[in-house]
Every structure is written in structure tokens, then in C-alpha cells.
Amino acid sequence: MQVAKKLILDRLSSLYSRQEIESLTRLIFEKFPGFSRLQVHLNQHETISAANLAQIKEITDRLTRFEPIQYILGDTEFYGLTLKVNRAVLIPRPETEELVDWIIKDCHLLNPAILDIGTGSGCIPISLVKNIPGASAEGWDISTDALMVAKENAEINKVKIDFIYADILNLDYPSHHNKYDIIASNPPYVTTSEQPVMLSNVIDYEPHIALFVPDAKALVFYRAIADMAQISLKPGGNLYFEINEKYGPEITELLASKGFINILLKKDINGKTRMIKAEKGI
Q: Which pTM was predicted?
């Protein structure tokens, strides 16, 4: 194991911080040799097979090109669940876990009907159905590849969710009148002007269709989803968004202009305004 650890450190030390390397090393060892975190700590002198050492070398090669470790290993953890990920879907972020946690703690309904728009890996509806008793959910996305990943994740986590191809910007939705108790979305909200300052592991590998919006249309998805929610949310139902911290006031104003009430902005663990909730009036 010491040889493998040295290989990882030597190849990555000029590219990643020591803390990042330690985290990456733990993830690599847990995935391939099959060691738990405790076993990695205890079995310092365990011999790594030649096959596993070759795999570790391949992983570090990809890490030197800043490919996300989640894509390399093929899965990630989200809200205590294991989810498959590939380049068709965004890697779920801690901010989205906080949004999920807010919805779960906020929900006191029996058997709520939930819709997640732009579902990607399915992380939001899967986590909600796993943690809200009796909940049913749909997940919509414009990417058929993303929907395939989401369906696999639902099977892995033993939940039933309807994943549906839908384009929220071109949607015929009268048939969804008063159907949902909760609508949630983590839509594309990074503006194109912000792209140059983003890290290469995001720009080069994650799906741009799920990330970016033109500066001139920064709120296009929030507007479309709010319009749909005016029809599709049940009276008293709640709409939850993950947001770009720059646009909290504008999104608040947008939702208020469309008749939503009890609008609440929420900060994430880092003190950034990254979530918003609004209620459909009765």
C-alpha cells in the first residue's frame, strides 16, 4: 500500500493540495482494493496486487488531467446514498444536499407528490422519496442520457420514480393542473460570463447544458418553472430552487410578481444565498 500511496502523491503533489490528495487517496483505495477507511489506516503494509496498482496508475493519470474523481470511479455519495455518475450528469454538490435536507425537514404532508425539474442523476427525487414517508416523485430532464443514469440510480437505491423526457422551456403543461405538492429544481444558473473563472475539472468534463445560461437570460429557467408551478402546484404547495447567489433578490421579485407568497431565501453552510422557497397561494 505504501508504494501505491507514494505513486499517488508523487504524481499529484504539484497539482492538488495535500488535503485533496489525502481525500483522493482514500476514495481510490476504498474503490479498488476494497478497503474501508479504517482498513486503509490500519493496513499500511498491505500488498497491493499488480492489477490494482495498474488501475491506480490509470486513475492518477486521469487525475493529472483534472478529470473529476467521481467520473473516474463512476459513483459518488449524496445524502447518504450511492449514486452512479458519468459525464451525462452533473456531479451532485453539497449545496444540493442542503436543498434536499431543507425540503425533507420542511415537509409534513402525508404522501406528497413531488416533481424535480432538470433531474440529472436523480439525486433530488431519489433522496426525497427515500426520506419522506409515502412520497411519490417524477424527475424531468431534457437529456435522455441523464434520464438513463437517473433510472439506474433509482434501481440501485430501490425506489420507484417516474423519469420523463421534458423540455421546461417548451412545455405543454395544462394536463398537470394542481398535481404536485412540491416542485424542486436545481436548474442551469451559471452565466456564461462566469465561465472563465471556473475550474477546468468542471468546464472540461461536466455537461454544459446543465450548467450555463446566457447572461441576458439568467432567470430563464426560474421564470419557466414558476409559470409551470402556477398551474401545476396544488394550492399551498411549495416551490424550491437552488440558485446563483448573485440573483437572490431578482428571483424573489420574479416569484412575488407571479403571485407566490411566503418567499424565503436561505444561505448554505458557507453563508452564501443558494436556495429559495415559495408557496403557491390558496
A: 0.93
